[in-house]
Write a structure and sequence with these properties.
By secondary structure, the protein is of the alpha/beta class. It contains ten helices and eight strands. Strands 1-2-3-4-5-6-7-8 form an eight-stranded parallel barrel, surrounded by four helices. The chain is globular, with a radius of gyration of 17 Å. The structure holds 1,3-dihydroxyacetonephosphate.
Length: 247
């Protein structure tokens, strides 16, 4: 099963649902639809209405983050996994580089993953190196640290997906070469196998994915799908990614 996940970041108002409607109609008619899932992570403000709207449709709704406590607490503006689940979220991103920049530590991320899983959310755990780390050939050691500091063996691996998003690639139009990405994806899978043995979590790629470069990623069969930012904000660009991937 492949995943096409659209991360809207700080984008969207109630009427933006029309974008998802178009994606949903494409998906419903696509002859390849049994091969993939579509998930959209709108901002918190839209999770409840979109989850209701897409309840019996093909698209699943997720959150972009969650707070590192399980249910209720006195943390102003915080939203827990329990609260997300109660309004219909099925997935949550955790560890996006935007949130790591804002101060999310490995310890916080571990709690987020634990509580999200406890509340039956599927976790899309994001990792990735920055430009300096890449230039210093530290990519693999950074990824290993990010994975092993947070993902525990006892977590329910069936509800975890890993998204590899090199920070230097997010929103820049720069993407890794096929060789680089293949090597990195295989390495991530190797680390996941060390933690989870058989049937370890799938690995997605994210960073400047669009309808034209997605064809290049087809060659890398280790990749289980894509986490898409900019190109998920218009139906045409998002559909182009799926269409060209299966062409
Ligand atoms: P872009 O696709 O805009 O590079 O964003 C990727 C991303 O951060 C998705 O989470």
């Amino acid at each position: 099963m492949k995943y096409f996940i659209g991360n809207w970041k700080m984008f969207g108002v109630p009427k933006s649902v029309s974008i998802l409607n178009k994606i949903n109609s494409y998906y419903s008619k696509d002859k390849n639809r049994n091969k993939y899932r579509v998930i959209i992570t709108p901002p918190y403000t839209l999770i409840e209405s979109y989850s209701k709207y897409f309840k019996n449709k093909k698209i699943s709704i997720g959150a972009q983050n969650c707070y590192q406590k399980e249910q209720f607490s006195s943390n102003t503006a915080a939203i827990s996994p329990f609260m997300l689940r109660s309004v219909g979220a099925k997935y949550t991103l955790i560890g996006h580089s935007d949130n790591r920049f804002e101060g999310d530590t490995d310890l916080m991320l571990k709690d987020k993953v634990k509580y999200a899983l406890n509340n039956n959310l599927k976790v899309v755990f994001c990792i990735g190196e920055n430009k300096t780390e890449k230039n210093n050939k530290k990519t693999l050691s950074v990824l290993k640290r990010q994975l092993t500091k947070v993902l525990e063996k006892k977590f329910n691996k069936n509800n975890i997906i890993v998204a590899y998003e090199p920070i230097w690639s997010i929103g820049t139009g720069k993407i890794p070469t096929v060789n680089e990405l293949k090597k990195t994806t295989i390495y991530i899978k190797k680390i996941l196998k060390q933690i989870y043995k058989k049937n370890s979590p799938g690995v997605l790629y994210g960073g400047s994915v669009d309808g034209s470069n997605v064809e290049m990623f087809k060659e890398i069969r280790e990749i289980d799908g894509f986490l898409i930012g900019g190109a998920s904000k218009t139906s045409k660009k998002f559909i182009d990614i799926i269409r060209n991937y299966y062409r």
